[in-house]
Each structure stands twice: as structure tokens, then as C-alpha cells.
Amino acid sequence: MLELQYELESKAAKWYATIDIANAFFSIPLAAECRPQFAFTWRGVQYTWNRLPQGWKHSPTICHGLIQAALEKGEAPEHLQYIDDIIVWGNMAMEVFEKGEKIIQILLKAGFAIKQSKVKGPA
Q1: Looking at domain 11-120, which of 2.20.25.90, 3.40.50.150, 3.30.70.270, 3.40.50.620 is its CATH number?
Q2: How far apart, in whole angstroms, are the C-alpha atoms of residue 123 and residue 121?
Q3: In this predicted model, what pLDDT tens digit does every residue of 45-70 receive, in sequence order?
């Protein structure tokens, strides 16, 4: 986490914006062959997860990697990412707005949901 903090401090800019992907883990379907390992019984009924569960120890790593891959494939502008949180920066508000919009479009195309209330900035 400190590495991310130092990286951000090196990106001195006048304007910043943040994007938080809504329910990112639940946007990621589990492959059918993996679902049995996520089965559980509750009150005598057996259930299984069909989406990446939030409490599983590998979920953050998988989520981060899939978002990173989508952003690379979509040729996202320079940004920093920590799991499902993304920050962009620039010296003009419009520049930051445009970077944020491009990233949002890439994420939407990849199947992730964005709540406008979770997008902050440019500020």
C-alpha cells in the first residue's frame, strides 16, 4: 500500500478524479467448473456462488487483475488502480474529465458497472 502512496505523491497535478467500480467482485462470473468449490450448506439447503465472492482471500487479486487487463486492452490513459478504485490526474479539469470518461467507457464495455455517485471529481 505504501508503494501506491509514493506513486501517487509523484504524480503532482492540479486536478484529480476517482472512480470506484460498483460491486466489482459481483460483476465477475465464476467459471462453471469452479462453482463446486464455492458450494456451502445453510439451514439444510445447499447453495453455490455464481459470482466472485467478496470474502474469498483471492478475490481482490483476481478482481484487480481483470480490471487491469480490461484497462490495458482498452488503452486507458495513465492512471493508478487499487483493486476496484482508480485515480486519474492532470493539470486541467477538462483533461481529467476526459481521462475519467475514457476509463469509464472501457470498464462499461468490459461489463463492469459504474455508479455516477461513486465518481468523484475532477477536483
Answers
A1: 3.30.70.270
A2: 5
A3: 999 999 999 889 999 999 999 999 99
CA dist., res. 106 & res. 102, Å (int)? 6
- Residue written as grid cell 482508480: 86
Which three cell numbers mark 19?
A: 472512480
Q: What backbone phi and psi angles, to 5 degrees, belong to 55?
A: -85, -5
Q: For helices 59-73 and 93-109, what crossing angle results, to 10°?
A: 110
| Alpha carbon distance 119, 49 (integer Å) | 28
Helix (H) or strand (E) holding 119: strand 113-120
Question: Position 111: which residue type?
Answer: G
pTM, two decimal places: 0.85
